[in-house]
Structure formats: structure tokens, C-alpha cells
UniProtKB/TrEMBL annotation:
Localization, UniProt: Membrane
Pfam family for this entry, one: SNF
Keywords attached to this entry: Membrane, Transmembrane, Transmembrane helix, Transport
UniProt KW Kinase keyword: no
Topology with respect to the bilayer: Multi-pass membrane protein
Protein's name according to its UniProt entry: Sodium-dependent transporter
Transmembrane feature ranges: 12-33, 39-63, 84-114, 144-162, 174-194, 214-238, 250-276, 296-328, 340-362, 382-401, 422-446
Primary site of residence: membrane
PROSITE patterns in alphabetical order: NA_NEUROTRAN_SYMP_3
Gene Ontology CC, one term: membrane
Length: 451
């Protein structure tokens, strides 16, 4: 059995940032911020990301590097003969479900990129863009083929391994993503009336905040950092002891925040400039954004660039999701990687078929008043990831002594006692309590207790 490692520190950071950024920051953040009132949602999201997400990210890095285990064996090695391995199992199941519906959105990106390149998105009205999106996602054969294409691209890269596949792809895709995003943001901010979009994003309106919005902001903080599913545990298991974990975590958190804000600045100025609605929901990028770009000079070129970076971000996140499952199944034996990657990838595609058909032939199939796609999305973002994060935040200080944690976090970083204490108490006390309060609030239990 051969243990893989990242080839370089920057390669790991780009790969982990790619896992974190993905659709969560570019597709999901603008629409949940749009429906959540803009600035108020952004503020809550930033607080959750910095004070809950960052400490938990360091924690996942720490136990992954310490044990060199996959998502399941990491917990078993630290707490043998216990039930804590369930945390890793929850992570593997979460990633499987997540990639099954995530690949559907990846397929939509591929379809839109094809339509944009062949002129199918040129010269339509705002209403026609909305109708086109509805027609595309309701058509089973093209959406299934596009979903399969996205899954195959993911399989091909991950099957090559950590260095040759994930790391090499991420080192190209992540810098390209930032460059393309900056160009699009500059163009978006140059529009007449763009200041209204900037105001919407940065000026909080707390009347828009509800308990559900706060839960969504919590789920978004974990979703965009790939937390709670042991993704970062798996990625950190390939790290040498010389890696500076706090610095790496901070770099990834800041990159994630910057990309989320850039996504808002790419979209909301155009939305307000052309008198469109920011609360269009999941269709915001696919139905609203083409209408915005079509009214700009060289708009289609900018939209094609946006779709390319969107696809890059989606793929880098998909790499981490399937890697967690592959690592857990193969126990990191490179000789089994190719076979298991293909097997797992095809199974994910099959399980994702109902999500793909949720806007077409299976649109009438509802569970708890949600389509299969929406049910999977809600379960992952608002239940499984926060639950996984809660269990991890309890597990680390419970099963590892303060001295063990301090020694591990100092390897490669020489972090001081003050930084360690702040991190430790945030992880041990603040993170679990905050997650429990948000869960209770979303279930209406706080009003029942104190109302």
C-alpha cells in the first residue's frame, strides 16, 4: 500500500480552496444572499465563516494530518473501539448525496456553455432567458448527458491520483478562476446603476433576517468551506508535518470570502442596473445573468468567460467530494484507485438521475413538499453538514488532550499559546453551542422555550 502526498504547499491550498469555493460560492451564495436580503445575509455568513468555519477547518486539517487516515479511519484511530467512526460515515454519505445533485448543476453549466458558444443565447429577451432555462432543465436527455459528462470529467481527473490529477488540475483552474472573475467584476461595476447592486450586497437590512435565513447562512458557511463532511480531513491526510495548518486554513477562508463577494459583485450590479430581481433563487445565474450580459458590450464573451470559470470551480469541488469516498473505500491503496473511482462515479450518476429529472418528468414527485433535487440540497446544506460539523467540534477536544492538539498545531507553524487558546475555546465551546442554537431556532424550539 502506498500513501500519496501533495507535491507542494501551494498545490494543497489551491486544491483545498477549489474544494471550498466551487458552486457554493459562485452559484449558491448569490441566490441565497439575494433571497436572504443581501447585506444582512452577507454579514451573518461572514461571522459564521470566521468564528465557526475557520476554527473547524483547522480542526479537520489537524486530525487528518495527525492520523493520515481517510474520512472513516481517522476517527477510529483516535477513538478505537468506539462509535465515533459514524462521523466519517456521515461525511462519506453526505459527499455521495451532494455530488449526486451537484453534478446536475455541473451539467447545466456544460449545456449553457455549449449554447453560448453556438449562439443559442444571443438576442433573447429577459423573459425568453427564463423560459429557455425552464426548457433546458425539463428536457431529460440533454440534461442527463450533460450530468454524465460532468461526472466523467471528475472521474478522469481523480482516477489519476492526488498529485497528477487533483493537484495539477487545481493549480491551473484556481488562478484562472480569479483572473476571469476580476475581469467580469470590473465590467459589472462599470454599468450604469451598478451602485444599487453594491449597496444591496454590503448595506445590511436586518428586517430581512429570519430564523430560516440564519440557518441557511450557517449551512452556507459550512457548504462553501466543505466542512462537516470530513472533506478537509481527507485532503489534510496527504499533508507533510511541515505544513502550516493555521496559515493554510486562513488562506482558504479568505479566498472563499473573496470569491463569494466577487460573485455578488459580478451579479448584483448587473441585476439592479437592468431592473431585474435579486431574489430569483437557484435560477439567478442561469436565467437572470445571461439577460444581464446580453445587454453589455461584448456581453456574450464575458458570459462565456463566466461559464468557464463556473465550470472550473464546480469541478474542483467535485474532485474533493469523490476523493473522500474513494479514499475511504480504497484505504488509500493507489492500486485500487482507478477501479473504485469509476465504480463510485457511475453510482453517483445513477443516484443523481432523480435530481436531474426533478425539473422535468419527475417534477410532480415531492417529498416533504420538496422535489428530489431540493430535498437533497436541503438535507446536505442544512442538516448533514451542520450535524457533521457539530460532531467534529465535539470529537476533537473530547478525544484529544490540549497538549496533543497544541503540539500538532505547532508543527510547521510555531503558533503561540494565545492563538491556540482562542482556537481551542472557539472550537470546544462556541462552535457546538452556536450550531445547536441555530438548529433549535430553525425548529422553533427557542420560541417555545422563551416565548
Amino acid at each position: 500500500m502506498s500513501q500519496e502526498q501533495w507535491k507542494s504547499k501551494i498545490g494543497f491550498i489551491f486544491a483545498a480552496a477549489g474544494s471550498a469555493i466551487g458552486l457554493g460560492a459562485i452559484w449558491k451564495f448569490p441566490y441565497v444572499a439575494g433571497t436572504g436580503g443581501g447585506g444582512a445575509f452577507l454579514l451573518i455568513f461572514l461571522l459564521f465563516t470566521l468564528f465557526l468555519g475557520a476554527p473547524l477547518l483547522i480542526g479537520e486539517f489537524l486530525i487528518g494530518r495527525k492520523t493520515k487516515g481517510d474520512a472513516i479511519t481517522t476517527y477510529q484511530r483516535i477513538a478505537p473501539n468506539s462509535s465515533w467512526g459514524i462521523v466519517g460515515i456521515i461525511g462519506v454519505v453526505t459527499c455521495f448525496i451532494l455530488l449526486s445533485f451537484y453534478s446536475v448543476v455541473g451539467g447545466w453549466i456544460i449545456i449553457y456553455l455549449f449554447e453560448a458558444l453556438t449562439g443559442g443565447l444571443t438576442g433573447l429577451s429577459q423573459d425568453q432567458y427564463g423560459m429557455l432555462f425552464g426548457e433546458i432543465i425539463a428536457n431529460p436527455l440533454p440534461t442527463l448527458l450533460a450530468q454524465l459528462t460532468f461526472v466523467l470529467l471528475t472521474i478522469i481527473v481523480v482516477a489519476k491520483g492526488v498529485q497528477k490529477g487533483i493537484e495539477n488540475a487545481s493549480k491551473i483552474m484556481m488562478p484562472a478562476l480569479f483572473i476571469l472573475f476580476l475581469l467580469i467584476v470590473i465590467r459589472s461595476l462599470s454599468l450604469d446603476g451598478a451602485s444599487e447592486g453594491v449597496k444591496f450586497l454590503f448595506v445590511p437590512d436586518f428586517t430581512k433576517l429570519t430564523s430560516e435565513t440564519i440557518l441557511i447562512a450557517l449551512g452556507q458557511a459550512f457548504f462553501t468551506l466543505s466542512l462537516g463532511a470530513s472533506a478537509m480531513v481527507t485532503y489534510a491526510s496527504y499533508l507533510p508535518k511541515t505544513q502550516n495548518l493555521p496559515r493554510s486554513a486562513l488562506s482558504i477562508v479568505l479566498m472563499n470570502i473573496v470569491i463569494a463577494i466577487l460573485a455578488g459583485l459580478a451579479i448584483f450590479p448587473g441585476v439592479f442596473s437592468f431592473g431585474l430581481e435579486p431574489n430569483a433563487g437557484p435560477v439567478l445565474i442561469f436565467a437572470v445573468l445571461p439577460a444581464v450580459f446580453s445587454q453589455m458590450g461584448f456581453g456574450m464573451l464575458f458570459f462565456i468567460a463566466f461559464l468557464i470559470l463556473f465550470l472550473f470551480a464546480a469541478l474542483t469541488s467535485a474532485f474533493s467530494m469523490i476523493e473522500i469516498i474513494v479514499a475511504a473505500m480504497t484505504k488509500k491503496d493507489k492500486s485500487k484507485r482507478k477501479k473504485y473511482t469509476w465504480t463510485i462515479g457511475i453510482l453517483i450518476f445513477i443516484v443523481g438521475i432523480p435530481s436531474c429529472l426533478s425539473y422535468g418528468v419527475m417534477s410532480d414527485v415531492l417529498v416533504f413538499d420538496k422535489t428530489i433535487f431540493d430535498l437533497f440540497d436541503y438535507a446536505v446544506s442544512n442538516v448533514l453538514m451542520p450535524l457533521g460539523a457539530l460532531l467534529i467540534s465535539i470529537f476533537i477536544p473530547l478525544k484529544l488532550s490540549k497538549s496533543e492538539l497544541f503540539e500538532e498545531i505547532r508543527l510547521g507553524s510555531h503558533s503561540g499559546k494565545m492563538f491556540f487558546n482562542v482556537w481551542y475555546y472557539l472550537l470546544k465551546y462556541f462552535t457546538p453551542v452556536a450550531i445547536i442554537i441555530v438548529f433549535m431556532d430553525a425548529l422553533g424550539l427557542i420560541d417555545k422555550i422563551f416565548g
